[in-house]
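Annex B. Sample input.
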Amino acid sequence: MTTEPPSNNTPLVSVIVPIHNAADTIVECVESLINQSYRNLEIILCDDRSTDNSYSLINQHFSDPRISWISADGVGACAARNPALRYSSGDYIQYLDADDLVARNKLELQVHQISACRNPDQTISFSSLVLFKDGSPPESGKRWHEKDVAFDKPLQLLRKILSSDQFICIHQWLLSRRLAEQAGPWDESLVADQDGEYFARILQQAHTVLSCPEAVVYYRKAVAGQISSRTGASHFQSRLAALETKISILRECVGQEMLKAIVAEQCPWIATRSYPRSK
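Annex B, continued. Sample output.
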């Protein structure tokens, strides 16, 4: 496949994809990236101790010079994202998991949206989300998007998410490198809700959050080993630690009664998610 050279005056987007034994989905994932209408991007695939043929599949299917393959320093998705972020050189950062997909115009729409803002370095954009079952066409899933167009106080969005059953997955976001640097690295000690903890810190640093409902990301459900589906004591403790970080951040803008209500809402959810009842 030939690739048109990007314009030199457009921001560079770094797409960071951690990989662990993703042979079943990685080709489809990368295809959704190289086919983006926004051409000025680099695709950083960071291997997390894969033992399958993910690497050979990438070499077999792609010769795009925008693709790089590096190895993780530690264990887990966070330990893959951190070195990939250090390796990257983009003005904007897009995180994506190896089993998920982005619509062809996602990056173009969000880059243009953020770039048009008064303070793009402190602005973050999130797309619509389609949840689809593994083995089904991505477009067959249910689409969700946030009705509120903008949040001039980003922590209000965090409060809204924690006060409801809504969530925003990492693939929906497009953020500036500056925000990523201000928020700090992914917490490699966490084994669950790493994305929620990380983006709570991103929202703490941001000045504006924008919804971009025309942009779409496709989230694949029920893939073996998916972090969001894991259970047990370590995942329970990790989700509690992530919640503690979120509550600590929310103290900047939320009263004590609201914090109590959020804890009362979240703790039972964490318990049942970590220790689901047997059928």
